[in-house]
Amino acid sequence: MKFYTATEDEILSGKITDIYFDRTIKTLEHLGINNVEVRMEFHSYGLPKGYSWAVFTGLEEALKLLEGKPVTVYAMPEGTLFKEIEPVMIIEGNYLDFGVYETALLGILRHESSIATKAARIKKLAQDKTVLFFGLRALHPAIAPMADRAAYIGGSDGISGAFDKDIFDIEPSGTMPHALMLSIGDNEKAWKAFDEAMDEKVPRIALVDTFEDERTEALKAAKLLGKRLAGVRLDTPSSRRGNFRKIVQEVRWTLNINGFSHVKIFVSGGIDEEDVVELRDYVDGFGVGTSISMPPSVDLSADIVEKKIDGKWIPYTKRGKWPGAKQVYRCSGFNDIITLLEDKPIEGCKPLLVKYMENGKIIRDLPSLKEIRNYVLEQLREVQTL
């Protein structure tokens, strides 16, 4: 038995690829073609239905994969909100030097951008309410760090991996599962033991729907822990939920009239965009899992769009795609203009693609994870639509 995961060496060596890329290289070599200078563009010609933008995520890992290879890379900064057709990254070089990495590069960019985009949509809808990502159990454990990173970039206020402090220097979020109450057999005893066992920096948020109804357990927890209780979490399963908003309102009312207005309410369990809209006026935060872990796919693809012929770059691509390597200028009001990469700059607008790698060497400092997240949040405040 084994874990069916690729090693870092297998990814970096190009072994993790679709076989037809490997066969393409062999065919070109068979013909004696050993130098095909191209510009390959990564873009989405079809965002998920109802999406007007997505969040470009995964650049750091893409550069890690290409580092040391004789290519030049232009890209949007990680965390940039982009629209359909706009290139998020361009690789310039001999196709034989990087063609086998297309599978891995698309997997990195597509998966991470999809998770970050969904997290950003949830955060945008949640407005000033807290969003915590609890989706690791929906994914293979080998990619748990990637998922937490992408969800955090997208705007999640907290991530739940026990490893997050070591890898990202971020304190993980999360308090107790139903298993704690079920193992002890008494909810009040479990809440009290948790309070006694945990470090003071861990917020006391009691799960209040294990044995009795939410109103009853929430009030019991509040009376037991008093001012030490920061909040309660409702993880009510769909089979018992009924009208979730009315349950939340009932809990809030009961806590308030008994002097526990300081106790916040968090909800979790199958939360998606429509739930956030329905509940955001009545809760203090959301624990969101599967809808972020397994989101609609941001359909990124990679296409050769220019080829160097007789020393000049010539627009050159398959039908259905816009020929020519492109630049994107962001103007006021989130209005974007697409031009050819080497066209004259547009005055008053910001070019989004910048050079990150020259002949395999990274030439630009990469931002920290928190800086990328802040960049996303700034854009979310500016953008008007989902």
UniProtKB/TrEMBL annotation:
Its EC number is 6.3.4.21. Residues 349-383 form the Nicotinate phosphoribosyltransferase C-terminal domain. SUPFAM superfamilies: Nicotinate/Quinolinate PRTase C-terminal domain-like, Nicotinate/Quinolinate PRTase N-terminal domain-like. It is an enzyme of class 6 (ligase). This is nicotinate phosphoribosyltransferase. Gene3D superfamilies: Aldolase class I, Quinolinate phosphoribosyl transferase, N-terminal domain. InterPro entries: Aldolase_TIM, NAPRTase-like, NAPRTase_arc-type, NAPRTase_C, Nic_PRibTrfase-Fam, Nicotinate_pribotase-like_C, Quinolinate_PRibosylTase_N_sf, Quinolinate_PRibosylTrfase_C. It holds the Pfam family NAPRTase_C. Pathway: Cofactor biosynthesis; NAD(+) biosynthesis; nicotinate D-ribonucleotide from nicotinate: step 1/1. It comes from Acidianus hospitalis. Keywords: Glycosyltransferase, Ligase, Phosphoprotein, Pyridine nucleotide biosynthesis, Transferase. Residues 18-113 form the Quinolinate phosphoribosyl transferase N-terminal domain. It catalyses: 5-phospho-alpha-D-ribose 1-diphosphate + nicotinate + ATP + H2O = nicotinate beta-D-ribonucleotide + ADP + phosphate + diphosphate. One of its GO terms (molecular function) is nicotinate phosphoribosyltransferase activity. GO terms for biological process: NAD+ biosynthetic process. Signal peptide: none annotated. CDD domains: NAPRTase_B (cd01571). Residues 115-301 form the Quinolinate phosphoribosyl transferase C-terminal domain.
